[in-house]
Amino acid sequence: MDSRKIDTRGESAARLARNIACVKYTLFCFNIVAWLCGLGLFAFTIWIRVEPGFEEWIRILDVYSYYIGVYILIALAVFVLVVSFLGCCAALVEHGLGLMIFTILQIICFLLAIFGTAILLEHSTYESRIQPMIRHTMNRLIMYSEHEPQRTMLRMVQESVACCGSEGPNDYLNLRQPLPIECRDTVTGHAFANGCVDELTWYLEDKSIWAAAMAMSLAMIHVINAVLAIVLMQALRREEQIMYRRN
Q1: Across-strand partners of 184?
Q2: Cross-strand partners of 191
Q3: Rounded distance between C-alpha atoms, residue 161 and residue 181, angstroms
């Protein structure tokens, strides 16, 4: 009976060791994926922040709040790069306390990803907080379009984005102002139907959607990493118990 118990415990320990190795290397691979995603998010958000000409648009439109979500995602990306590296080390050496800290950090990363994405989309998408800000700036530029530098900024916006007024050509008609030539298509001569508020919002939204998609992918990976880390910790505790009983 004793020999059978010993054999059973030996088989159980060997099977548990294989499971631990499987979970450990799976966690290691997911941390590599998280590190690469974090690097991609960092590069993309830094590009948004330093893109030539983009900051000039933010200055003209006076929508610096757009950068709040970008800064949060930059901080998230840096944090992920560090945490993923530490997670790889903790998994490989099977360090219980390190895995526990890693799990807590994964939760923090998840919350940062959700919070940063929410803030970014809240200040860059259609029917978000960014539209009233753009509308206010455009109305001010139109109202004072007889003066510089408002005239130059308004011309720059309408020519570059192919839009007219804040909500459309009627903005000029309501103010009894002539329709600027940059409000018309150079080929057909017809006025642009879309206002600059919608066109500029869509322009910002296109950039934000990519950053948000990358951040949400990271959030999903953080959940998987946290679950794997918890499973690995439990398996390591089980292995310790088996080793203690055998001794």
Answers
A1: 191
A2: 184
A3: 14
For residue 10, give every residue at least 6 positions away whose Cβ sits within 8 Å of its Cβ, in sequence order, or none. none
Can you give the pLDDT at residue 1? 45
Higher pLDDT, 221 or 246: 221
Helix residue ranges per DSSP H, 51-95: 54-61, 66-93
pLDDT of the residue at 35: 95
SS3 184: strand
Segment 170-210, tens digit of pLDDT: 888 888 888 888 888 888 888 888 899 998 999 889 889 99
Between CA 228 and CA 99 the distance in angstroms is 10
CB 167 within 8 A of CB 195: yes
User: Tokens 């001794």 belong to which residue?
Assistant: 247
pLDDT at residue 37, as a whole number = 95
Q: How big is the chain by its Cα radius of gyration, in Å?
A: 28
Rounded to whole angstroms, the Cα distance separating 247 from 114 reads 47
Which is nearest to 166 in space by CA: 152, 178, 181, 183?
183
3-state class (DSSP) for residue 191: strand
At residue 172, the pLDDT reads 86
Alpha helical stretches, state H, 123-246: 130-143, 150-161, 170-174, 196-246
Beta bridge partners of 37: none
Which region holds residue 221: left if phi is over 0, alpha if psi is between -120 and 50, else beta?
alpha
| 184 phi, psi to nearest 5 deg | -110, 145
pTM > 0.90: no
Residues 200, 61 contacting (CB under 8 angstroms):
yes
Phi-psi category of residue 116: left, alpha or beta, with phi > 0 → left and psi -120 to 50 → alpha: alpha
